[in-house]
Amino acid sequence: MIPMEGDAPAPGFRVFPSADGSIPAEENAVKPAAPCAFPRRMPLCVEIGMGKGVFLLEMARRHPETAFLGVERYESVLLRAVQKMEALEKEAGAPENLRFFSADASMLPALLGEEKAERIFLNFSDPWPKKRNAKRRLTSPQFLSVYEKILVPGGELVFKTDNTALFEDSLSTLREQPRWEVTAETRDLHGDIRRAAEAGLPAEENVMTEYERRFSNLGNKICRLKAVFR
Ligand code: SAH
Predict the structure, then answer these.
(1) Range of weakest confidence among 43-52, 111-120, 173-182, 190-199
(2) Alpha carbon of 89 to those of 34, 48, 94: distances in Å?
(3) In b/e form, how buried is each residue of 80-104, taking b as 16+ CB within 10 angstroms?
(4) Which long-range contacts (CB under 8 A, 24 or more apart) does 212-217 make?
């Protein structure tokens, strides 16, 4: 666990929706180490700092055979994702392979117990530019050691941001870690995808996040790195 001075107490564990597909009431907090309650065993991907769930809802729709778990520390933000799931339940049906937790990322090993993830997505994580807050960055050595506990060996971290300082800092942090290997990096993801399409080459999948759309509309280039945990 990563103790952080001055932090508000971590919000309680909560899973959305619950195993029977309903949205649990306030008092039905999920206990640490409770299984993720997916309908069957599937490879698991986790997005940390999922915000309102735009990315995960689309990923879950595109990949029905993968389980997606979103973690977001602010319940008020997560609520927007829950509302989207509720709306989907009333229409076509919400994806059964998608779950949300309101918790700090540092709680993930306790939440997952023996469960391991194949991939962790970090999308547009808070930059924490001041050096004294460096340990709060979701790509700090402290958080990497949290991810080491929940990833399978060979599992992958995929990080997107428009913040070049955070991107470069994250790359050098990962390169200093003996058990992590940076396997891909780009400082212009959308340009790469466009150029591949123009050359008739198959482009890699990229599901846009809410922040990605907002910042690329402002003209910011999107950086992405991939790193494997050995
Ligand atoms: N991924 C979304 C939102 C990015 S904003 C998108 O790309 O559109 C970053 C989000 O990460 C915020 O909602 C913030 O509350 C959350 N966050 C930051 N630190 C966190 C932590 N330690 N644990 C869980 N969530 C965190």
Answers:
(1) 111-120
(2) 24, 24, 5
(3) ebbebbeeeeeeeebbebbbbbbbb
(4) 212/123, 212/124, 212/160, 212/162, 215/124, 215/162, 216/162, 216/190
Residue that wins the pLDDT comparison between 207 and 5: 207
Q: Is 75 in the pocket of ligand 1 (CB under 6 A)?
A: no
Tell me the pLDDT band of 82, cut-offs 50, 70 and 90.
confident
Q: How far is the CA of 72 from the centre of ligand 1 (A)?
A: 6
Average the pLDDT over each of 30-44, 82-96, 186-200 and give the range with the smallest value.
30-44
- Ligand 1 centroid distance, CA of 218 (Å): 20
Q: CB neighbours (10 Å) of residue 109?
A: 17
Does ligand 1 come within 6 angstroms of the Cβ of 166? Answer: no
- Probe residue for ligand 1, chosen from 13, 50, 137, 144 as the CB with the greatest number of ligand atoms within 8 Å: 50
| Phi, psi dihedral angles at 189 (to 5 degrees) | -60, -45
The finding on whether 222 has its CB within 6 A of some atom of ligand 1 is no
Q: Nearest residue CA, atom 4 of ligand 1?
A: 124
